């Protein structure tokens, strides 16, 4: 069976770096890539945001497919936090590896906003590779 890699994608510089690493891993392991974006809600007022996310996912799919790699994109709107959503998706699809981009945040920022990366690293049932954005 083909290895499965999940990439958490939010169109940030950090997630772009995660895509780059996922491409290397997909080539190395002949893996299928799932690029996943999670939104807590998707109401009509958020249509512009949904359109932007859809455009970003299309970019990610092309990024892999132009190199002959298998890629599926997923926009999840299930009422969960992004961390919970990605961990649940990984379990549901029996993912072998999760790759996420991380950004430096202050301690107060982590307390107020939480840390999606921290949740994924601690709760995932597969290896998690974090990519630190250097810019």
Describe the structure.
Among the domains are: 43 residues, no CATH class; 41 residues, no CATH class. The chain has a five-stranded parallel β-sheet, sandwiched between helices. α3 runs parallel beside α5. The radius of gyration is 14 Å and the shape is globular. The mean pLDDT is 89. The chain starts with a strand and ends with a strand. It is built from five helices and five strands. With 135 residues, the chain is of the alpha/beta class.
Summarize the structure.
The protein has 135 residues and is an alpha/beta fold. It has helices at residues 13-29, 47-65, 82-92, 107-113, 116-123; strands at 4-8, 32-39, 71-77, 97-102, 128-132.
Which properties best describe this structure?
about 140 residues, five-stranded parallel β-sheet, alpha/beta, globular, about 45% helix
SSE layout and pairing:
Layout: E1 4-8, H1 13-29, E2 32-39, H2 47-65, E3 71-77, H3 82-92, E4 97-102, H4 107-113, H5 116-123, E5 128-132
Separation of the first and last Cα atoms: 37 Å
Provide the helix percentage.
40-55%
Shape, please? globular
Main pleated sheet? 5 strands, parallel
Structural Rg: 14 Å
Strands in their spatial order, largest beta sheet: 3-2-1-4-5
Number of strands: 5
Q: Quote the beta fraction.
A: 15-25%
The chain-level mean pLDDT equals: 89
Q: Give me the secondary-structure category.
A: alpha/beta
Total helical segments: 5
- Helix-strand pattern: EHEHEHEHHE
Low-confidence stretches: none
């Amino acid at each position: 069976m083909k290895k499965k890699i999940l990439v958490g994608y939010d169109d940030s510089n950090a997630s772009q770096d995660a895509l780059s690493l996922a491409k290397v891993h997909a080539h190395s392991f002949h893996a299928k890539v799932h690029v996943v974006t999670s939104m807590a809600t998707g109401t009509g007022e958020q249509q512009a945001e949904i359109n932007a996310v859809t455009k970003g996912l299309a970019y990610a799919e092309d990024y892999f497919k132009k190199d002959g790699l298998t890629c599926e994109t997923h926009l999840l709107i299930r009422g969960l936090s992004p961390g919970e959503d990605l961990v649940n998706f990984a379990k549901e699809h029996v993912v072998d590896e999760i790759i996420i981009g991380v950004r430096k945040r202050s301690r107060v920022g982590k307390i107020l906003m939480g840390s999606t990366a921290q949740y994924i690293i601690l709760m995932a049932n597969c290896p998690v590779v974090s990519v630190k954005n250097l810019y």
